[in-house]
Write a structure and sequence with these properties.
alpha+beta, eleven-stranded mixed β-sheet, 17 helices, 23 strands, 28% helix, 20% strand, globular
Length: 564
């Protein structure tokens, strides 16, 4: 992983947190997708990423996605497959620039109270929705209230509840709009009051759950507002002109975006091709301009041929969920045996066939405090790059299943993706061979697969996480008892308490210490099968310039240009 951007982003987040008004008033990551990782010590992004050339010819491009999202409502979804639409059609109070820094989006600047609990955002002049109507501070108030309404079903609701004053009480119906710490002071001024000082709150606001949505279109169309370009009202640099289920989403320039004069690209077609080999054929024939998922077997060749491989630092980890709420996987010894039985080096070198670093923890490298990466020197949990068959069998025997006897058939689930399929099949063979247990491999399209995961209808399931913002706290809710994103159903009161304490800790080093303590507790009970630390890669033709991807996997087209 190239640490430069991540270090810069982390440092900027700390600046906003601890210099408060001085930095804040200057203005300016289910990812759940286990991408094939690239060299975690890679140098600068290769290919055309973020380079800027002079526009030439028709400003239209087609980019291929390997999975269709389960929804496009920023207040509801936590699906990483939705981010390519959401990051380009919506803009929250803050956003990311090409350097991975948090900068002003709909807010031109902001102030923070001396005690670090009240944030006052000053919106840009003349903000509009994509239909031309005015966008005001009240729209942000409505959007947050909507997320905090149980009927909405927001997957990131716990993020909002954890930090905003009286958000928990509002969600429970025990507080009013007046009590909630979100106020429109006037059309251009939004005030957000926190429960307690939160050092990374500005970073949190980059998450799409805080994006504004238009009350009028939602009330007029209900849940169907996200299914048609006519009703999909947004506020970002692009708007939706077409939605064709199973085929594509077509984005066109939003002439009502506040910075529309600096958006050159007129049309971006996000095309769904689930088979990555078919997508690559379309790319190499010139039918499309870029593809999100590179077939693992072609990665080395494409990189050697300078075929437009872009390698981007990613703050994330590839792992498999273990259902801690289901027998026999509720036993940490069983989960330990599964971890010991997996050959991470084999998966990296022979299955995904790229350079990557084996992962023994769920927090990824890349967050730096006082010049030191948070993950330097962290325990390997007794795991190794290759399988430790003897130790795995001992753990399973201690759990009551000597030589695998009496262990139920393990269902190993994955979602439709060529690379993920190869990894799942490899893991299944390792578990069968090293533990002498039966493994049944099952797959489904993402929407069906993920519905089973969030409802606990699985044993072990392909998953992964890219931080939604550049701070280790983004990972921690994955294991907090009852959190909407805790799909492994792990629970430990001591872990929960340490995470809660870290959320209000304003000293960066102390916060780091608390989070590492929490990680030690959880990882020593093996709620995941951690595989490797991620980088993102994608293909883009050299004539497409100005596209950039951030460490949380968001891909931005607002600065894109076709140069020939």
């Amino acid at each position: 992983m190239k640490k430069g951007k991540l270090m810069k982003a982390a440092a900027f987040g700390m600046c906003c947190a601890f210099l408060l008004t001085a930095c804040g008033s200057s203005g300016d990551t289910p990812e759940t997708l286990p991408d094939a990782a690239s060299d975690t010590t890679a140098e600068a992004t290769e290919g055309s990423d973020s380079a800027q050339g002079e526009a030439s010819g028709t400003q239209e491009m087609t980019f291929v996605l390997s999975n269709e999202p389960d929804g496009l409502d920023p207040g509801i979804t936590n699906n990483s497959f939705a981010q390519y639409v959401l990051a380009n059609c919506f803009e929250g109070l803050v956003t990311y620039n090409q350097d991975g820094e948090v900068v002003g989006g709909s807010a031109e600047n902001w102030d923070v109270s001396d005690d670090g609990t009240v944030y006052t955002f000053h919106l840009r002049d003349g903000l509009k929705w994509s239909d031309g109507s005015d966008l005001t501070a009240s729209d942000f108030v409505y959007s947050i209230q909507r997320v905090l309404t149980p009927e909405t079903g927001g997957m990131y609701v716990d993020i909002v509840k954890s930090y905003i004053l009286n958000a928990d009480e509002y969600y429970a119906g025990e507080a009013t709009e007046e009590d909630l710490g979100v106020k429109a002071i006037d059309d251009q001024t939004l005030e957000i009051t926190l429960k307690q000082p939160t050092s990374f709150f500005i970073d949190l606001l980059t998450m799409w759950v805080f994006d504004p949505v238009q009350q009028e279109t939602i009330e007029a169309n209900g849940d169907s507002w996200t299914t048609s370009g006519e009703t999909y009202i947004c506020n970002g640099p692009f708007k939706v002109s077409e939605m064709n289920m199973g085929e594509n989403v077509v984005l066109v320039k939003n002439e009502n975006y506040w910075d529309a004069d600096n958006v050159t690209m007129e049309k971006v077609t996000l095309r769904y091709i689930l088979d990555t080999s078919t997508a690559l054929t379309a790319y190499e024939s010139g039918e499309v301009d870029g593809i999100r998922s590179i077939p693992s077997s072609d990665y080395a060749r494409l990189k050697a041929e300078n075929a437009g491989v872009n390698v981007v630092p990613n703050y994330g980890t590839v792992y498999y969920n273990i259902n801690c709420g289901k027998e026999p996987y509720d036993d940490p010894l069983v989960r330990k045996a599964l971890n010991l039985a997996v050959d991470r080096e084999n998966i990296i070198n022979n299955v995904v066939q790229v350079d990557a670093t084996p992962a023994y923890n769920f927090l990824a490298p890349g967050y730096v405090v006082d010049g030191k990466d948070m993950m330097d020197g962290v325990s390997d949990r007794g795991l190794s790059a290759t399988a430790d068959v003897e130790a795995a069998q001992e753990a399973l025997a201690e759990a009551g299943y000597p030589n695998g006897e009496g262990f139920p058939t393990l269902e190993l689930s994955y979602y439709s993706d060529d690379t993920v399929k190869k990894v799942a099949e490899a893991i299944a063979e390792m578990l069968e061979t090293n533990l002498n247990i039966d493994v049944e491999v099952t797959s489904a399209d993402w929407a069906v697969f993920y519905d089973d995961v969030i409802n606990g209808n699985y044993d072990v399931a392909a998953m992964g996480w890219t931080a939604d913002y550049t701070h280790p706290m983004s990972f921690m809710p994955l294991l907090v008892t009852g959190d909407a994103n805790n799909n492994s159903f792990y629970s430990n009161e001591e872990y929960d308490a340490l995470v809660a304490q870290a959320q209000s800790e304003t000293d960066a080093a102390k916060c780091e210490e608390l989070l590492l303590q929490a990680q030690d507790i959880a990882m020593d009970e093996y709620p995941f099968i951690n595989l490797y630390y991620k980088s993102n890669n994608y293909l883009m033709k050299d004539y497409v310039q100005g596209v950039y991807m951030t460490a949380n996997g968001n891909l931005y087209f607002k600065d894109a240009v076709i140069t020939e």
